[in-house]
Predict the 3D structure of the following.
Amino acid sequence: MHDPELLAELEALRAQNSKLKRINAALIERVESSSSQRTESYAAFQHSVELAEQVRERTQALNDTMAELQASNRLLSDARARAEKAHHYLIDAIESVPDAFVLSMRTSASCFITAALPRSGRAPTCASPKAPRSARSSAWRCAPG
């Protein structure tokens, strides 16, 4: 039993067994780590799908908001245009009021002066609206025509 050949063979078998155990452990480690990588890969893929869905939903919400904003801007532009038009009408009306008073004063002065015409028969005329304000501010300041 203590044959040197048997002992050498036993020692070779133990070395081979040890080597096979190391290979087996390495393969088990590789399989276990690759399955966790597959799980991690699948989890990463699933997460990217969820992120893509969130991006799609938020993009749709953004597009809807942009459409509402554009409609609101159109309404604001229309309202501003109407307000500017009304403002111009108001300015025109305010600017025409002094002209109306001048015309009214001319008519009043003309009527008043016509009633008191001198015997020459020539009716005096009022000062021009372009005359200085003091010259046209009163119906009494009429120049002979």
